[in-house]
Amino acid sequence: MSIRHGLLALLERGPRYGSQLRTEFESRTGSTWPLNVGQVYTTLARLERDGLVAPGGEDAAGHTLYAITDDGRAELHQWYERPVDRAHPPRDELSIKLAMAVGAPGVDIRAVIQAQRHATIKAMQDYTRLKATALAAVESGQSRERDDVAWLLVLEQLIFQTEAEARWLDHCESRLVRLSLPADRRATEPAAPQAADGGDPDHPAVPTTTPAPAPASVPATATARPRTARMRRS
Predict the structure, then answer these.
(1) What pTM was estimated for this model as a whole?
(2) Residue 65 to residue 178: CA distance in whole angstroms
(3) Which H or E run contains 53?
(4) Do 167 and 117 contact (CB within 8 A), yes or no?
């Protein structure tokens, strides 16, 4: 998440001091990504170092104000126009957890998936309730309509994200089941026949004599079938 550009966006509306920026940032995003004052002032110091903000005097209470510069305004609008880079996605704890759980001794990965699915669905339900509240606030035309619209967009992104996560968890469980079938099937299949001369069983040597016919008691069409299918049906 770009706190740097988020603060620039708030400063474009006018000079602000650190605590004010934190409050407005959290109001705009519904405190989804809370900030502490130290983080805000550290970011402001870097923005000032890069020439994107500059001290803007003090307010009546003696708070040091920061104002966006022309370079900062240009950087902000380039950020708006530039697509978010997905070439280096952020680390995702759930993906890392499942990757490490695969094959880990003593770990039931399906139980891990089911526990996460329960938590994900609960989060999606909570977001949906919050969305209903935010939507009602927007439709009522309250004075904080801009922040409510911003919060509504954030909530809808979280809802879509949790919906996708739930579908991905379903897919992971199905994938693990499918990948476990070939090993079970190989365990029930008969071993491949070996050629009489020790050569390649798929390309045996041409016999020098005519093979004897099959005994009458064994039908010529009889073949050995693995019991996998019958076992799965039982």
Answers:
(1) 0.66
(2) 60
(3) strand 53-58
(4) no
